[in-house]
Write a structure and sequence with these properties.
The complex is a heterodimer of chains A (396) and B (253).
Chain A: E1 2-13, E2 16-28, E3 33-37, H1 44-51, E4 59-64, E5 67-68, H2 74-79, E6 81-85, H3 96-100, H4 102-106, H5 111-124, H6 129-132, H7 142-154, E7 160-164, H8 172-189, E8 192-197, H9 200-206, E9 209-214, E10 217-222, H10 224-229, H11 234-240, H12 244-248, E11 264-265, H13 271-281, E12 285-289, E13 295-300, H14 301-304, E14 322-323, H15 328-337, E15 342-346, E16 352-357, H16 358-377, H17 389-395
Parallel strand pairs in A: 3-8, 3-9, 6-7, 7-8, 11-12, 14-15
Antiparallel strand pairs in A: 1-2, 1-4, 4-5, 9-10, 12-13, 15-16
Chain B: H1 2-13, H2 16-38, H3 40-46, H4 48-81, H5 86-101, H6 104-115, H7 119-143, H8 147-155, H9 160-194, H10 203-211, H11 215-243
Classes of the chains: A alpha/beta (396), B mainly alpha (253).
Chain lengths: 396, 253
């Protein structure tokens, strides 16, 4: 959808030429979110602004939807791309409705259609149209303004969104909320999004692809998991942080590491049955579930062996169950909180579906390192630019 | 700390609005009593025809010179903000600033020496005296429109003209109107001087009254001038209320 081919920008400053973007090549597929990441002055914003030609490139090519952007009038090109900036940039002289209607109006929509679209978008942003259509930007909170900013960018339903640190000026709590809303929206809208950020956590959360820049050069262009697991060089390893493996937890869901065949026992079943099942599965505990399949407690092998009675009589309190669609980071956090090596997992109805174990999680996280070690043994692997000596660092 | 601040600010703020009109009404009443006691009301009533005629002439001078100043000053101020001329803009503003330090009376004298006596030199001098605040406020008003708004507008695909008309001017309008208000208030107050070069207006009563040592006559010119200045200001403020978007009007949330 968006292809950058040897994109270069050289600024002529009073201190001589400065290369802000140095032969940047990358390709962002349709419906993908690509986060341009890096420290300030690394060229990410310059690269972004060359795409909608707010900055004219020095050399190289940009293709959007297969068309060379040099062949399109800059003004026309920009109208096909939604643009969101950190300062939001809602026009204070216009109401929310007028702000959303800026691009549609330039495209010649009639006022009724613009109104309809504004209502639709506000509803999508969870802002009541009856309240907000007639408001002016200064009558909105920061979070509301940013929602309207996104709505405005989406107004003419452009296939491409260009976002320059869109959530940078919002307080951390609201930022999380807006990021979540935005991701949910993106799941249905499937826009192709270029997104500048300097926050690795935001990038990991939002991106399908991460492009890391330094000094105008594209240092690594890969999926978030690969950037975290296999940073291409020590700069990237430092940039993504020493806790990068923990950050990968965020990319996984509980269901990804679920051990679905974990045994369970009903409270009225005999202890002997429970012990047998534990032996079968070679584990020291078993989850006790009620008639609805909901976990109510857990029985330990040490409590059961050599005793008699029902499983329910000897059950102990259960570590708090996690949902299948929870992200692994919160699940692991919960494990640490309860000093547990495993947690029972439940589905939306609360029914027991299996368990996750610390071992299972570390095994899953380690997959990629083992695979890389294998392919690294084979020379001339076209794969990732990661150098083997960093694997050890990444796996720590 | 916070409550201490609030305690300090609350009593200052709340009684003011009801107090102000009350004071003004009292002052006006007192003034009325005083004025009536001096026989000024009868004096002015006897000159009513003169006052009406000269007021009309006065306002014509204001309308023509002020109107021309707006017609020239606003486009010129806008022009100075365009990227092509922005390099010279500061110099141009300097020239205007220096020009505005020349006393109006001197400008009147200068314009009389070139254009002779009558309405024409008066209008020219008034125009020159009014121009600066309009140009300056237009210029700074537009420059003060935040850069990120221009960037957002450009990024959304607005042409430079669309940005000027839909973003820059509407957001600068409040400041521009402030300039026009100041300019017209100065204008109304300066018109009496135009009498000195044969321009007419309420100055005729004021200066003749001074010359003849007739305070009644002088005040018959001065009081309507003051009233006209206040009315002009009100009218401009009213127009601004309708023209300037509520989103950029300061103060009323």
């Amino acid at each position: 959808m968006i292809t950058l081919d040897n994109l270069t920008k050289i600024f002529n400053t009073s201190m001589g030429p400065v290369t802000a973007a140095d032969r940047v090549c990358m390709e962002v597929g349709e419906g993908e979110v690509c986060v341009l990441l890096g420290p300030s002055g690394c060229g990410k914003t310059t690269t972004l602004k060359m795409v909608n030609r707010l900055i004219e490139k020095t050399s190289g090519k940009i293709f959007v939807g297969g068309r060379d952007t040099d062949t399109i009038d800059a003004v026309e090109l920009r109208r096909t791309m939604g643009y969101v900036i950190q300062q939001i940039g809602l026009f204070p002289n216009m109401t929310v409705e007028e702000n959303i209607g800026v691009v549609p109006r330039m495209l010649g929509w009639d006022s009724q259609r613009i109104r309809k679209r504004a209502v639709e978008l506000l509803e999508m942003m969870a802002l009541s149209p009856a309240v907000f259509l007639r408001r002016y930007p200064r009558e909105l909170s920061g979070g509301q303004q940013q929602r309207v900013g996104v709505a405005r960018a989406l107004a003419a339903d452009p296939p491409v969104l260009i976002m320059d640190e869109p959530f940078g000026a919002i307080d951390p709590i609201n930022r999380e909320v807006i990021q979540d809303e935005f991701l949910k929206m993106q799941q249905t809208l499937r826009k192709t999004i270029l997104f500048v950020s300097h926050d690795i956590d935001e990038a990991v959360k939002m991106a399908d692809k991460i492009a890391i820049f330094r000094g105008g050069k594209l240092e690594q262009f890969d999926s978030p998991d690969n950037v975290l697991a296999h940073p291409a060089n020590s700069f990237i390893a430092d940039f993504v942080g020493g806790d990068r493996t923990l950050k990968r937890l965020r990319l996984l869901k509980v269901r990804d590491v679920l051990k679905a065949d974990a045994p369970s026992v009903r409270p009225d079943e005999a202890l002997e049955t429970a012990v047998r099942r534990m032996h079968e599965h070679d584990q020291g505990h078993i989850v006790v579930t009620d008639a609805d399949g909901c976990p109510t407690g857990c029985l330990f092998l040490a409590d059961a062996v050599g005793r008699h009675g029902s499983a329910g009589d000897h059950a102990r309190a259960l570590p708090s169950p996690v949902r299948l669609d929870a992200d692994l980071r919160s699940a692991v956090s919960s494990m640490f909180t309860h000093d547990a090596e495993w947690l029972p997992c439940v589905d939306e109805s609360g029914a027991f579906r299996g368990q996750i174990t610390q071992r299972g999680i570390t095994h899953r996280l380690g997959d990629t390192y083992r695979a890389a070690a294998l392919t690294a043994a084979v020379p001339a692997d076209e794969g990732r630019p990661a150098a083997p000596q960093h694997f050890r660092g990444a796996a720590e | 700390m916070k409550t201490a601040l609030a305690a300090r600010y609350v009593p200052r703020f709340i009684p003011l609005p009801p107090l102000l009109p009350a004071l003004a009404a009292a002052a006006l009443f007192g003034l009325g009593v005083l004025v009536h006691a001096t026989g000024l009301v009868d004096e002015m009533a006897s000159r009513w025809e003169d006052i009406a005629f000269l007021s009309q002439q006065h306002m014509e001078l204001v309308a023509i010179s002020g109107g021309l100043a707006i017609l020239c000053g606003v486009p010129f101020g806008i022009l100075l903000t365009r990227p092509a001329v922005r390099r010279m803009a500061e110099n141009a503003m300097q020239v205007l600033n220096i020009g505005s330090t020349i006393p109006t009376l001197a400008i009147l004298a200068l314009s009389m020496s070139v254009l002779g006596i009558g309405e024409k030199p008066a209008i020219f001098a008034l125009w020159a005296a009014t121009l600066l605040p309009i140009v300056r406020n237009t210029y700074t008003g537009i420059l003060e429109v935040p850069r990120h708004l221009i960037e957002a507008a450009t990024g959304m695909g607005m042409t430079p003209l669309q940005i000027l008309l839909r973003v820059e001017i509407p957001n600068a309008l409040y400041v521009m109107f402030a300039g026009i208000r100041t300019a017209l208030a100065v204008n109304v107050g300066t018109v009496p001087l135009a009498f000195l070069i044969g321009g007419g207006g309420l100055g005729e009563l004021i200066f003749t009254g001074i010359d003849l040592n007739e305070p009644g006559m002088m005040l018959s010119g001065a009081i309507p001038t003051a009233i006209l200045a206040v009315l002009t200001d009100l009218v401009v403020a009213l127009v601004a209320r309708f023209v300037v978007s509520r989103g950029v009007m300061p103060g009323d949330r």
